[in-house]
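Recap from last week: sequence in, structure out.
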Amino acid sequence: MRLLVTTPTAVVENVDDLAHLRAEDATGAFGILPGHADLVTVLPVSVVTWSGDGREGFVLIRGGVLRVSGGDLIEIAARGAWREDQLEELGPSALEDLQRADETEDVTRTAETRLHLAAMRQIERVLRAGRDGPGTPPRLDRRADETAS
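Predicted structure tokens:
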């Protein structure tokens, strides 16, 4: 089997001759061996372990999608991923990167929300000015005696 772990900006892991893989999704932990049926599942923040090429590896996944195809290819597309040969080495550096990424996303989300609200307010001002400005036809929901005054 072959394992390919990618993020939007990098190929984190590319292993041939994979013997087995262990991951977990919302239903719990599961394993994949050569010849596994086709599968697509969503991965939460979790550690994926594997052995192959005479070594073990660990990849911390920051949420993503795992796909098994043809019984010999496992692809993981993740928002973020960190790889180490030793599980103990994975924690500290990945945790710092995750915290930094979460803070950046929070700032970005706040800025996008503010921009969206400002655009909506501006649209409302333009629509209001066009409705109440001179030369606009009388509103149909007013009575005739109100429009005469």
